[in-house]
TrEMBL record:
This is VOC domain-containing protein. It comes from the Bacteria. PANTHER family: GLYOXALASE FAMILY PROTEIN, GLYOXALASE-RELATED. Gene3D superfamilies: 2,3-Dihydroxybiphenyl 1,2-Dioxygenase, domain 1. It holds the Pfam family Glyoxalase. Residues 98-118 are annotated as: Disordered. SUPFAM superfamilies: Glyoxalase/Bleomycin resistance protein/Dihydroxybiphenyl dioxygenase.
């Protein structure tokens, strides 16, 4: 049985563009960078950027990576817009928290999530 997540793999079509997005737009630490594989650290979880030969920019979604913002979700939205992220809607309110959908440079679905206020 699984007891943790080792790596999240994200397909990319342009490694340099993808690394720049995750480094510059999301402010993640690049641990290694290569032509076919790059690794980023997200608070101890590794995101692997995988430049597969058959990767294509996604338009229909798939898996979603959800990030916890450092500040308020509104502040982080404004920062992401300023860094060129593709915001895909407004902040939505739910009993379990708030989310803001956006896409990375390769068309992968991402979100910001903040838990409900206690």
């Amino acid at each position: 049985m699984a007891h943790g997540v080792a790596t999240v793999w994200v397909p990319v079509t342009d490694m340099k563009r993808a690394v720049a997005f995750y480094r510059d737009s999301l402010c993640l630490e690049v641990k290694s960078e290569g032509e076919d594989w790059s690794e980023l650290d997200v608070g101890g979880l590794m995101i692997g950027l995988n430049a597969r030969e058959d990767a294509q920019v996604s338009t229909s979604g798939g898996a979603v990576i959800t990030f916890q913002p450092d500040g308020s979700i509104e502040e982080e939205r404004d920062d992401l817009v300023g860094r060129g992220a593709d915001i895909r809607g407004e902040i939505s309110e739910h009993p379990w928290g708030r989310i803001l959908p956006f896409k990375d440079s390769e068309g992968n679905d991402l979100q910001l999530y903040s838990p409900p206020k206690a």
